[in-house]
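Final report, Chapter 2: Outcomes

The project's central promise was a pipeline that accepts a single protein chain and returns its three-dimensional structure in a standardized token representation, suitable for archiving and comparison. That pipeline is now operational. To close this chapter, we reproduce one record exactly as it appears in the project archive, with the input sequence first and the structure output second.
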Amino acid sequence: VPGGGASLRPCSTRRAREGMNKPVLERIIRVDHAGEYGANRIYAGQMAVLGRSSVGPIIQQMWNQEKDHLKKFNELMVAYRVRPTVLLPFWNVAGFVLGAGSALLGKKGAMACTVAVEESISEHYNNQIRTLIEEDPEKYKELLQVIKQFRDEEQEHHDIGLEHDAEATPAYSVLKTAIQLGCKAAIFLSERI
């Protein structure tokens, strides 16, 4: 993983995968892949509107990390033979529209979107970490490392959003709540469909 991050070596033998809770593993990889895909589309939408503004380089930096996250989950989808959510075409459009729409509110609007999404994703990753620790922290050690690293990077994006005046967005609490409800719905659906 670029930047010296955690890597997850896929288990190449059936024996090495024995004992893993396949439904839990598949649900986690599927929803995280969908989430990182959606995040990429959000940042693409923000860059389409604000890419040449003063905040463009900051958005690009966060987007580059999201690209690394998506690349890792693409690899895990193949390694563990997990099918993607059938909702990817919808997340493609919805993510871009959310990113571009929030960016049309200006830098603060884009950062408010970032704070709302990244807070939801950090919470989601924390729930997954708890689940894997309850299952067997040793068995899922490498996946836990990946999720913890990505959670920390998502938290960093959240903090960047706050540093760049997200809370000064008009109707910030309403916007944040609406986006987070959308994130929760996307997580729920992507885990199952």
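Archive annotation: Helices lie at 14-17, 22-50, 56-79, 88-104, 107-135, 141-163, 172-192.
This record, like all others produced under the grant, will remain available to the consortium after the project formally closes.
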